[in-house]
Amino acid sequence: MSESLLDVRLSVNGVLHELRLPARRLLSDALRHDLCLTGTHVGCEHGVCGACTVLADGRPVRACLMFAVSAVGLELTTVEGLADDDGTLSNVQQAFVECHGLQCGFCTPGFLTTITAGLRENPQPTHEEARDMIAGNLCRCTGYQNIVKAVERAAELGAQQEVEGS
Amino acid sequence: MTTKLMGTGVQRVEDQRLLRGHGRYADDVAVDASTLHCAVLRSPHAHARIVDIDVADVLDVDGVHAVWTYDDLTGPMAEPLPLLIPHPALTHGRTQYALAKDEVNYVGEAIAFVVADDRYVAEDAVGRIRVSYDLLPPVVGIEAARAADRLVHDDVPGNVGARMEQSTGDVEAALAASPRRLTLDLDVERSACMPLEGRGTVARWDPDIDRLQVWSSTQTATGVRAVVAVKLGLDLRQVDVITPDVGGGFGVKINHPWPEELLVPLAARTLGRTVKFTEDRREHFISSAHERGQVQHIEVGFDDDGRLLALDVMFWHDHGAYSPYGLIVPIITSTQLLGPYKPEVYRVVFESLYTNTVMVTPYRGAGRPQGCYAMERAMDAIAAELGKDRTEVRAANFIQPDEFPFEQGLVFQDGRELTYDSGDYPASLEKIKALIGWDDFPAYRAEMAAQGRRVGIGLACYVEGTGVGPYEGAHVHVETSGKVKVATGLTTQGQGHATVFAQLVADELGCRFEDVEVVTGDTRRMPYAVGTFASRAAVMSGSAIHLAARKAKQKALKIAAEALEASPDDLQIVDGVVSVKGSPGSAIDLGTVAVLSNPLRYAFDEASKAATQFTVGDASKPPVAEDEEPGLEGTDFYSPERSTFASGMHAVIVETDPLTAEITVLKYAVVHDCGKLINPTIVEGQIHGGVAQGVGGALYERMVYDESGQLLNASFMDFLMPYVTEVPDGIDIDHLETPSPLNPLGIKGAGEAGVIPSAAVFASAIEDAEGLTSTGLAITAMPISPSDLFHLRLAHAEETS
Asked: Does B493 lie in the same domain as B552?
């Protein structure tokens, strides 16, 4: 017997998508397989590693712990939505380039989204706060050293823009 | 003049794609609704006979396309998976079948394979397969394997897959003659690579060209290609393997073929559809390989200066239920155990044992962390026994800089003599002492003690054979646009190969770094290759790429010399332009040289008009000279006679809580000698990652099997991988650059070093903090948790009261 399907409207990176999905479809799978937004990665499917972190109304959530149907009405941002429309990298992305903040890149999208939300809430973190900001995400390549540096560099880039913009 | 890029921390070219979410990992390939997905029925039992498998209900599930069990496999697919690395000492090698035949030997072994519209449906179907088993008693752990009152494989007596011995002399006589002797019994737990991306394979059969395309998250594309061709009865020319972005490897993805790496291509060919398998995390825990896991017995004889007169080591290695990767891990332990030292006589014996647990294959370090742990624990024990500083005892045993090449008198993992090519261990020791503040530590300890705080310092030294053969190759092609396309066959899992190899090409060829594009692990571009393991990519492919770029350069100079009417010796290539030295007006760019290199009959654009047969060359000679080929290309291979030996030392200062036994890292320092550095930023990134994995292995990570062979902590909730909160806040790194004489760039491997001395260095420091050294060796089992340390304290208090 076929699964019954539901109409699901997902707003992702400012674009509204109309989908027909089974109720059990995880948000991570809907993003990846139905919307082909494969930048969101799945590392554990039990909410521990944080690779699948996306922003829902600006707050970081684990897409593997949510059903797609639960995301209706939320403004979702994935890693594909972090750069400016003209392709300029966001401060967090740019900081990762400058600080060698990634190696294999698999966990990176989850760090980028998490730090993006973290710096919005606390644009000038102390060193301890910078470490704390990424303390819920796993990375097996970098030993986190350069990710912490990237958080601090992104904050610095943000501060520079504040000065330039003011 | 362009400055050399070798040795500079060039930013990675890979990052733009990966940071924008445009990476392409295995599960990102063929993302469309027509792709079929797989799920695997895995054994819930560690040891059982399969009585019956009933799949009747499966095909009723809407969206299921096919199901395979062993009985559906034919020809080579029905044979056991290959034993990849045979060895004369591996007298009882055993490998599993792609799908279990009659018997299962670990929880997680593949039994049935379902292909469906999506993974959800495939898992529904797996749930409908009914298997009846006759349970057999499982063998779990080294002790049970050695006891051998139960057997994993009926035809493997004593559960012993291999017994191997190497020695450099009469160790018993040397022990007897030693003025001082010590015995150590040590234990290292199991751990695993745990890349954030598990395994994944996608296959597409193209009936129009009679050809199979396979994407696999692997550390060896050519290895997968060869075995897929053999198992599916295809010609090698009918199989392409493309390595997509790989989300971490650390060793586990060098083993091949995993059952799914064969079953996915089989399904794609059978069904005529694109088929994908993506491993989930629990599957990775229970069906992908683990490592570490040894019990060691060490007898050491020494003199009053701590000089090693005799070293006799016996260890037992748990290789799990099967032995596809041969004896590589225990051979490396047994040889690399020696580190930077030169005992007068050494004997090592190991037994590689079967247990009813998932197989053991290399994990970053590949047996070296265990060997380093054994040797360095012995060094600490000798120092404690003699009341000497731990660095003094080590220094007394170092191979000296003027002793290279140094023959250890053993055979290494590649079947070659264990000969160290270069190194400077006394210089490393001076650097690490300065970096960690070794000589100032007693004052610091006293200062902390006055505050009621316990601190300890430890160090550990290692030598790592890197860049093992047999070879790697490279192809460098200058296109008529001036862009330089480079291919090498080994694969990439985050090491920044596209960046460092482009640095080497830009330096040697003289083109712009930005014009170089590097492809790795694609058998269509470089069909001859081995793989990425043993810290070999920079040494092997780096050297091959350097040599291939040199060939392309020589060809460019020859063609340009003719065009510019100059001698090749008078030419230089800078930023992609060939010019006569001292007369910059006389120049031609590499793109034009590429045009001239390929005499054409048909022009296709403005540039190619210059290459038609009426405009190019001497009419009295053949358009393509004898011994020449058209195209501005260079292909070369690098095959060294033996490995090159990197080395290093780690030191750590830890604090242990007097009440809770919590262990905190206060300072971590690394001195690392991987010969000439290509990109220091990337090398330091490798060290950072290695250290973090080492911290995990030393303090947190263990695979907890119960007596029935169930892995109790098969999730990221229960298997404690370090978050940022567990790793040192800052790692002090200093480099020593002792060039290797074995390759043109003087480089040595850097990928694994960060993880090798971790268990040893933490054991040393924690013991020091606890003040346990005066009673002999206190820490004998790693990893050590606060709870372990607490119990150690209790035992110690009882002993001394």
From this structure: yes
User: Are the C-beta atoms of B314 and B349 separated by less than 8 Å?
Assistant: yes
The type of residue at B278 is: T
Q: What is the pLDDT of residue B774?
A: 45
Q: What is the pTM of this model?
A: 0.96
Using the Cβ of A86 and the Cβ atoms of chain B, whether some distance falls under 8 Å is answered with: no
Looking at domain A91-165, its CATH superfamily turns out to be [2Fe-2S]-binding domain (1.10.150.120)
Find, in chain A, the residue whose alpha carbon is nearest to that of B24. A38
The mean pLDDT of A109-129, rounded to a whole number, is: 98
Determine how β-strand B732-735 pairs with β-strand B484-488.
unpaired
Domain A5-81 = CATH 3.30.413.10: no
- pLDDT > 70? residue B755: yes
Residues B721, A39: C-beta atoms closer than 8 Å: no
Peptide bond into B426 cis (omega under 30): no
* Closest-CA distance of chain A to residue B500, Å: 13
pLDDT digits (tens, 9 = 90+) for A30-86: 999 999 999 999 999 999 999 999 999 999 999 999 999 999 999 999 999 999 999
Which residue of B245, B280, B729 is in closest CB contact with A45? B280
Look at B716 and A46 and tell me if their CB atoms are within 8 Å: yes
| Cβ-based contacts of A103 with chain B (< 8 Å) | 248, 494-496, 685, 689
Residue B497 and residue B628 in one domain = yes
Put simply, whether B601 touches A (Cβ < 8 Å) is no
Q: Do residue B92 and residue B203 come from a single domain?
A: yes
Closest B-chain CA to A101? B685
Here the ipTM equals 0.97
Which positions 102-121 of A are in contact with B (Cβ < 8 Å)?
102-109, 112
Q: Do B21 and A80 touch (CB under 8 A)?
A: yes
B114 domain-assigned: yes
Structure tokens at B411: 């055979």
CA-to-CA dists, residue B303 to B33, B181, B226, B379, B789, angstroms: 72, 9, 53, 13, 32
B709 Cα to chain A: minimum distance (Å): 22
Instruction: Quote the CA–CA distance of A66 and A52 in Å, as a whole number.
Output: 11
Q: Considering its fold, how many domains does chain B have in total?
A: 3
Q: Does the fold of domain A91-165 match that of domain A5-81?
A: no
B479 and B625 both lie in a single domain: yes
Q: Are B85 and B469 in contact (CB under 8 A)?
A: no
* Contact with chain B for residue A50, Cβ under 8 A: no
> Is A55 at the interface with chain B, CB within 8 A?
no
CA separation for the pair B255, A94 (Å, rounded): 36
H helix intervals, B537-672: 537-564, 590-596, 606-609
